[in-house]
Amino acid sequence: MLELVTDDLAAHGLVDFSLRRAAKAAGTTHKVLLYHFAGAEDLLREAVEVLRERRVTSSLAAAFDPGHGQSLAERVRALWPVLTGSGEGQRALDQALGLAMYDPERHAALAVDAADRFLPPLRAMCPAGWSDERKDEVAELVFAALRGFLVQRRTGGVAGDVGGEIGFAALVRMLEREEAVG
User: Fold this and answer.
1) How far apart are the C-alpha atoms of 46 and 49, rounded to whole Å?
2) Which of 7, 39, 66, 93 yields a CA-CA distance of 20 to 30 A from 79?
3) Rounded mean pLDDT, 146-165
4) 50 vs 162 pLDDT, higher one
5) What is the DSSP letter of 66?
6) 105-122: pLDDT as tens digits
7) Cβ(22)–Cβ(30) under 8 Å?
8) Quick check: 161 pLDDT over 80?
9) Distance between CA 180 and CA 76 in Å, rounded?
10) How far apart, in whole angstroms, are the C-alpha atoms of residue 130 and residue 116?
11) Between the CA atoms of 67, 58, 112 and 155, what dihedral angle is there, to the nearest 10 degrees?
């Protein structure tokens, strides 16, 4: 059921999301969904998590593809097209981030879960010789910068696309310099 609801969310986004719409997508009733989920918010959170997991899996596959290079900068460069693309559920994930910012008391988990999922692989991309503290700092910086560039691209029109790309290029250069320092 969750996969079917997630597919509907990917296709139609969060606008007008309800238990009835989710039940229709899953081929069941809203009462059956309430048996399995605590409510519409719980179902939404779980469906967003499935979408995010699909996106994380795709972007990390690109980042760890041996054909893209092994440095942190090269791996971050490889995952960027996946993050900026119009792939499955992108609109719903963007809307989920907006919802988390709009009403953090109710929906903060929609954004926090992304950090929890992305930070460990970003740490793993850092050079082995770096201290754990440095890996943590750089992973947090990369995650925050990528999130900011994505928001800029999604909300800034053509200027946002240009600004996001300029910022991303600067981030990659900074990572190259950081790695060169050792």
Assistant:
1) 5
2) 7
3) 82
4) 50
5) G
6) 888 888 877 888 889 999
7) yes
8) no
9) 16
10) 21
11) 90
- Residue from 70, 79, 88 nearest 9 by CA: 88
pLDDT band at 91, cuts 50/70/90?
Answer: confident
Residue type, position 69, single letter: G
Whole-number Å distance between alpha carbons of 8 and 4: 6
Give dist(CA 28, CA 34) in Å, integer: 11
* C-alpha to C-alpha distances, 153 to 45, 137, 166, nearest whole angstrom: 24, 24, 11
Dist CA 147 CA 167 (whole Å): 11
Contacts with 60 (C-beta within 8 Å, 6 or more apart), sequence order: 79, 121
Q: How far apart (Å, rounded) are the C-alpha atoms in residues 112 and 66?
A: 29
**Quick one: tokens of 146?**
């990528």
- How many residues are given for the chain? 182
The distance of Cα 30 from the centroid of its chain, to the nearest Å, equals 28
Write out the two tokens for 34.
């309430």
Q: In which element (H, E) is residue 13 found?
A: none
Q: What is the pLDDT of residues 38-55, one digit of tens each?
A: 998 899 989 999 998 898
Q: Which of 84, 21, 75 is nearest to 47 (CA)?
A: 21
